[in-house]
Amino acid sequence: MVRKAALVVIVLLVTATPARAGTGSFQARDDIGSFRARDVIGSFRARDVIGGDVAGAGRFPWAVRLSMGCGGALTAPRVVLTAGHCAGPSGPNTRITVTAGATDLKARSAITVRSVAVFRSPDFVTETSGDDWAVIRLDRELAVPTLPITRENVDTGEFTVMGWGQTRETALRQERRLHYATVPAIPDKQCAAAYRKFGVKLVEDESICAGRHGVDTCQGDSGGPMVGRDRSGRWTQIGIVSWGLGCARDGYFGVYTQIAKFRAEIEEATSRFS
Ligand code: ARG
Protein backbone atom coordinates (compact mmCIF):
# COMPACT_ATOMS: atom_id res chain seq x y z
CA MET A 1 0.00 0.00 0.00
CA VAL A 2 2.71 2.43 1.09
CA ARG A 3 4.70 1.17 -1.82
CA LYS A 4 1.85 1.87 -4.17
CA ALA A 5 1.37 5.40 -2.82
CA ALA A 6 5.08 6.08 -3.21
CA LEU A 7 4.93 4.86 -6.76
CA VAL A 8 2.07 7.22 -7.57
CA VAL A 9 4.06 10.13 -6.16
CA ILE A 10 7.18 9.27 -8.08
CA VAL A 11 5.32 8.71 -11.31
CA LEU A 12 3.87 12.21 -10.98
CA LEU A 13 7.25 13.69 -10.13
CA VAL A 14 9.05 12.09 -13.03
CA THR A 15 6.36 13.10 -15.54
CA ALA A 16 4.72 10.28 -17.32
CA THR A 17 4.11 12.81 -20.06
CA PRO A 18 6.81 15.17 -21.17
CA ALA A 19 6.49 18.93 -20.86
CA ARG A 20 4.16 20.07 -23.65
CA ALA A 21 6.16 22.73 -25.33
CA GLY A 22 5.78 23.78 -28.91
CA THR A 23 8.88 25.16 -30.51
CA GLY A 24 7.04 28.45 -30.60
CA SER A 25 6.01 28.88 -27.00
CA PHE A 26 8.71 27.33 -24.80
CA GLN A 27 6.17 26.85 -22.05
CA ALA A 28 6.12 23.75 -19.91
CA ARG A 29 2.72 22.18 -19.37
CA ASP A 30 1.01 24.02 -16.54
CA ASP A 31 -0.83 21.30 -14.67
CA ILE A 32 2.19 19.08 -14.16
CA GLY A 33 4.42 22.09 -13.77
CA SER A 34 2.47 23.69 -10.97
CA PHE A 35 1.98 20.38 -9.25
CA ARG A 36 5.71 20.04 -9.22
CA ALA A 37 6.32 23.59 -8.12
CA ARG A 38 4.14 23.06 -5.06
CA ASP A 39 5.33 19.60 -4.14
CA VAL A 40 9.02 19.43 -4.73
CA ILE A 41 11.39 19.58 -1.85
CA GLY A 42 14.75 21.29 -1.84
CA SER A 43 14.60 23.47 -4.91
CA PHE A 44 17.68 25.54 -5.58
CA ARG A 45 19.12 27.77 -8.23
CA ALA A 46 21.51 26.29 -10.72
CA ARG A 47 22.55 26.99 -14.28
CA ASP A 48 21.55 25.35 -17.52
CA VAL A 49 20.32 21.69 -18.63
CA ILE A 50 20.81 21.93 -14.88
CA GLY A 51 24.32 23.02 -14.06
CA GLY A 52 25.54 23.05 -17.66
CA ASP A 53 26.31 25.48 -20.48
CA VAL A 54 24.67 26.89 -23.60
CA ALA A 55 25.73 25.08 -26.78
CA GLY A 56 27.04 27.41 -29.47
CA ALA A 57 25.83 27.25 -33.08
CA GLY A 58 26.97 24.09 -34.86
CA ARG A 59 27.68 22.12 -31.71
CA PHE A 60 25.91 18.72 -31.45
CA PRO A 61 24.46 19.12 -34.97
CA TRP A 62 22.44 15.88 -34.78
CA ALA A 63 20.44 17.03 -31.72
CA VAL A 64 16.80 17.80 -32.50
CA ARG A 65 13.83 19.25 -30.66
CA LEU A 66 10.41 17.58 -30.86
CA SER A 67 7.15 19.51 -30.64
CA MET A 68 5.68 17.51 -27.74
CA GLY A 69 8.48 18.93 -25.58
CA CYS A 70 11.22 16.33 -25.93
CA GLY A 71 14.62 15.95 -27.50
CA GLY A 72 16.03 13.42 -29.93
CA ALA A 73 18.98 12.68 -32.18
CA LEU A 74 19.23 11.93 -35.89
CA THR A 75 20.40 8.33 -36.26
CA ALA A 76 19.89 8.54 -40.03
CA PRO A 77 19.04 11.46 -42.35
CA ARG A 78 15.36 10.59 -42.08
CA VAL A 79 15.18 9.00 -38.61
CA VAL A 80 15.14 10.41 -35.09
CA LEU A 81 15.87 8.31 -32.01
CA THR A 82 13.98 9.48 -28.92
CA ALA A 83 12.40 8.11 -25.73
CA GLY A 84 9.44 5.74 -25.95
CA HIS A 85 7.50 7.89 -23.49
CA CYS A 86 7.88 10.87 -25.83
CA ALA A 87 6.79 9.27 -29.07
CA GLY A 88 3.40 7.61 -28.59
CA PRO A 89 2.49 4.20 -29.99
CA SER A 90 3.85 2.65 -33.18
CA GLY A 91 2.07 3.46 -36.41
CA PRO A 92 1.46 6.37 -38.76
CA ASN A 93 1.94 9.70 -36.97
CA THR A 94 2.00 13.11 -38.63
CA ARG A 95 1.62 15.12 -35.43
CA ILE A 96 5.25 15.61 -34.43
CA THR A 97 7.17 18.64 -35.65
CA VAL A 98 10.94 18.21 -35.55
CA THR A 99 13.29 21.18 -35.39
CA ALA A 100 16.81 20.35 -36.57
CA GLY A 101 20.02 21.99 -37.68
CA ALA A 102 20.24 24.65 -34.96
CA THR A 103 21.04 24.89 -31.26
CA ASP A 104 18.94 28.08 -31.15
CA LEU A 105 15.42 27.02 -32.12
CA LYS A 106 14.70 30.49 -33.48
CA ALA A 107 17.85 30.68 -35.61
CA ARG A 108 17.34 31.17 -39.32
CA SER A 109 19.21 27.96 -39.99
CA ALA A 110 16.61 25.93 -38.04
CA ILE A 111 14.81 23.43 -40.27
CA THR A 112 11.39 22.08 -39.37
CA VAL A 113 9.99 18.82 -40.69
CA ARG A 114 7.06 16.59 -39.79
CA SER A 115 6.89 13.02 -38.66
CA VAL A 116 5.22 10.38 -40.81
CA ALA A 117 5.49 7.35 -38.54
CA VAL A 118 6.66 6.13 -35.15
CA PHE A 119 8.12 2.80 -34.11
CA ARG A 120 8.21 2.40 -30.35
CA SER A 121 9.83 -0.51 -28.55
CA PRO A 122 7.17 -3.24 -28.45
CA ASP A 123 8.17 -3.83 -24.81
CA PHE A 124 7.66 -0.23 -23.71
CA VAL A 125 5.18 0.25 -20.86
CA THR A 126 6.31 3.34 -18.95
CA GLU A 127 9.65 5.11 -18.66
CA THR A 128 10.58 3.61 -15.29
CA SER A 129 10.08 0.07 -16.58
CA GLY A 130 12.85 0.09 -19.20
CA ASP A 131 12.62 -0.19 -23.02
CA ASP A 132 12.24 3.57 -23.20
CA TRP A 133 13.13 4.16 -26.83
CA ALA A 134 11.38 4.91 -30.12
CA VAL A 135 12.30 6.00 -33.63
CA ILE A 136 10.45 8.58 -35.69
CA ARG A 137 10.36 8.63 -39.48
CA LEU A 138 10.53 12.13 -40.96
CA ASP A 139 8.75 13.33 -44.08
CA ARG A 140 12.10 13.85 -45.78
CA GLU A 141 15.83 13.37 -45.40
CA LEU A 142 17.76 16.13 -43.70
CA ALA A 143 21.20 17.28 -44.80
CA VAL A 144 22.37 17.33 -41.20
CA PRO A 145 25.07 15.15 -39.57
CA THR A 146 23.85 11.96 -37.92
CA LEU A 147 24.89 10.42 -34.61
CA PRO A 148 25.98 6.76 -34.57
CA ILE A 149 24.85 4.40 -31.83
CA THR A 150 27.55 2.94 -29.61
CA ARG A 151 29.12 -0.38 -30.56
CA GLU A 152 30.31 -0.96 -27.03
CA ASN A 153 28.31 -1.56 -23.91
CA VAL A 154 29.88 1.19 -21.83
CA ASP A 155 28.23 2.40 -18.64
CA THR A 156 31.11 3.93 -16.72
CA GLY A 157 32.94 7.21 -17.14
CA GLU A 158 31.73 10.67 -18.03
CA PHE A 159 29.09 11.47 -20.59
CA THR A 160 27.63 14.56 -22.18
CA VAL A 161 23.88 15.14 -21.95
CA MET A 162 21.81 17.87 -23.55
CA GLY A 163 18.41 19.33 -24.18
CA TRP A 164 16.11 22.32 -24.41
CA GLY A 165 14.37 21.39 -21.15
CA GLN A 166 14.09 23.08 -17.79
CA THR A 167 17.21 24.59 -16.27
CA ARG A 168 15.77 24.27 -12.76
CA GLU A 169 13.47 21.70 -11.27
CA THR A 170 10.86 24.41 -10.70
CA ALA A 171 11.53 26.43 -13.85
CA LEU A 172 8.24 25.60 -15.64
CA ARG A 173 9.88 26.84 -18.79
CA GLN A 174 11.67 25.31 -21.74
CA GLU A 175 14.76 26.86 -23.28
CA ARG A 176 15.25 28.43 -26.68
CA ARG A 177 18.92 27.40 -26.74
CA LEU A 178 20.35 23.91 -26.37
CA HIS A 179 22.07 23.31 -23.04
CA TYR A 180 24.57 20.58 -22.24
CA ALA A 181 26.51 19.24 -19.29
CA THR A 182 29.06 16.56 -18.49
CA VAL A 183 27.93 14.02 -15.93
CA PRO A 184 29.59 11.01 -14.32
CA ALA A 185 27.92 7.61 -14.63
CA ILE A 186 26.79 6.23 -11.27
CA PRO A 187 26.98 2.51 -10.44
CA ASP A 188 23.61 0.80 -10.98
CA LYS A 189 23.60 -0.54 -7.41
CA GLN A 190 23.94 2.92 -5.87
CA CYS A 191 21.28 4.38 -8.14
CA ALA A 192 18.90 1.45 -7.57
CA ALA A 193 19.29 1.75 -3.79
CA ALA A 194 18.25 5.42 -3.89
CA TYR A 195 15.15 4.78 -6.01
CA ARG A 196 14.17 1.69 -4.04
CA LYS A 197 13.34 4.01 -1.13
CA PHE A 198 10.64 5.49 -3.37
CA GLY A 199 9.29 2.11 -4.36
CA VAL A 200 10.73 2.28 -7.87
CA LYS A 201 12.72 -0.67 -9.09
CA LEU A 202 15.49 0.46 -11.42
CA VAL A 203 15.80 -1.82 -14.45
CA GLU A 204 19.55 -2.03 -13.95
CA ASP A 205 20.66 -3.80 -17.11
CA GLU A 206 18.69 -1.44 -19.37
CA SER A 207 19.58 1.82 -17.62
CA ILE A 208 22.56 4.07 -17.09
CA CYS A 209 22.32 6.46 -14.14
CA ALA A 210 24.33 9.65 -14.32
CA GLY A 211 24.58 13.05 -12.71
CA ARG A 212 25.65 14.72 -9.52
CA HIS A 213 24.16 17.17 -7.08
CA GLY A 214 23.38 20.27 -9.14
CA VAL A 215 24.10 18.73 -12.57
CA ASP A 216 21.44 16.76 -14.42
CA THR A 217 18.93 16.74 -17.23
CA CYS A 218 15.37 17.75 -16.37
CA GLN A 219 11.78 17.88 -17.63
CA GLY A 220 11.74 18.53 -21.38
CA ASP A 221 15.13 16.90 -21.96
CA SER A 222 13.62 13.44 -22.33
CA GLY A 223 14.44 11.66 -25.53
CA GLY A 224 17.63 13.64 -25.98
CA PRO A 225 20.99 11.95 -26.41
CA MET A 226 23.61 11.03 -23.85
CA VAL A 227 26.89 10.87 -25.78
CA GLY A 228 30.50 9.85 -25.34
CA ARG A 229 33.57 9.81 -27.56
CA ASP A 230 34.44 6.60 -29.36
CA ARG A 231 38.04 5.44 -29.81
CA SER A 232 38.56 7.72 -32.77
CA GLY A 233 37.22 10.68 -30.83
CA ARG A 234 33.83 10.87 -32.55
CA TRP A 235 30.60 11.39 -30.64
CA THR A 236 28.54 8.27 -30.30
CA GLN A 237 25.20 7.83 -28.58
CA ILE A 238 25.25 5.89 -25.32
CA GLY A 239 21.88 6.72 -23.79
CA ILE A 240 18.52 8.46 -24.06
CA VAL A 241 17.19 10.83 -21.37
CA SER A 242 14.42 8.89 -19.64
CA TRP A 243 13.46 9.84 -16.05
CA GLY A 244 14.54 10.93 -12.57
CA LEU A 245 13.16 12.01 -9.22
CA GLY A 246 13.01 15.76 -9.58
CA CYS A 247 16.22 17.06 -11.11
CA ALA A 248 19.83 17.34 -9.91
CA ARG A 249 18.92 16.35 -6.35
CA ASP A 250 21.53 15.15 -3.94
CA GLY A 251 21.63 11.34 -4.06
CA TYR A 252 19.22 10.94 -7.01
CA PHE A 253 20.45 10.61 -10.53
CA GLY A 254 19.13 10.98 -14.03
CA VAL A 255 18.19 7.66 -15.60
CA TYR A 256 19.06 7.03 -19.25
CA THR A 257 18.05 4.20 -21.57
CA GLN A 258 21.18 2.06 -22.10
CA ILE A 259 20.95 1.85 -25.85
CA ALA A 260 23.68 -0.77 -26.29
CA LYS A 261 21.04 -3.20 -24.99
CA PHE A 262 18.74 -2.33 -27.87
CA ARG A 263 21.29 -1.75 -30.59
CA ALA A 264 20.10 -4.47 -32.98
CA GLU A 265 16.44 -3.48 -32.63
CA ILE A 266 17.17 0.23 -32.99
CA GLU A 267 19.32 -0.34 -36.06
CA GLU A 268 16.70 -2.54 -37.66
CA ALA A 269 13.97 0.03 -37.01
CA THR A 270 16.24 2.81 -38.32
CA SER A 271 16.95 1.01 -41.58
CA ARG A 272 13.26 0.22 -42.09
CA PHE A 273 12.51 3.96 -41.71
CA SER A 274 15.38 5.14 -43.91
N1 ARG B 1 10.91 12.44 -18.06
C1 ARG B 1 11.52 13.72 -18.31
C2 ARG B 1 11.02 14.30 -19.61
O1 ARG B 1 10.01 13.84 -20.09
C3 ARG B 1 13.03 13.68 -18.20
C4 ARG B 1 13.43 13.66 -16.79
C5 ARG B 1 14.89 13.58 -16.60
N2 ARG B 1 15.10 13.76 -15.20
C6 ARG B 1 16.27 13.78 -14.60
N3 ARG B 1 16.31 14.04 -13.35
N4 ARG B 1 17.36 13.52 -15.27
O2 ARG B 1 11.51 15.30 -20.09
From TrEMBL:
Domain Peptidase S1: 49-271
Keywords: Disulfide bond, Hydrolase, Protease, Serine protease, Signal
Annotated signal peptide: 1-21
Cross-referenced SUPFAM superfamilies: Trypsin-like serine proteases
The keyword Protease is assigned to this record: yes
UniProt cross-references to CDD domains, sorted A to Z: Tryp_SPc
Gene3D superfamilies, alphabetized: Trypsin-like serine proteases
Coiled-coil stretches noted in the UniProt entry, renumbered to this chain: none
Keyword Disulfide bond (UniProt): yes
Name recorded for this polypeptide: Trypsin
Organism: Actinoplanes couchii
Lineage: Bacteria, Bacillati, Actinomycetota, Actinomycetes, Micromonosporales
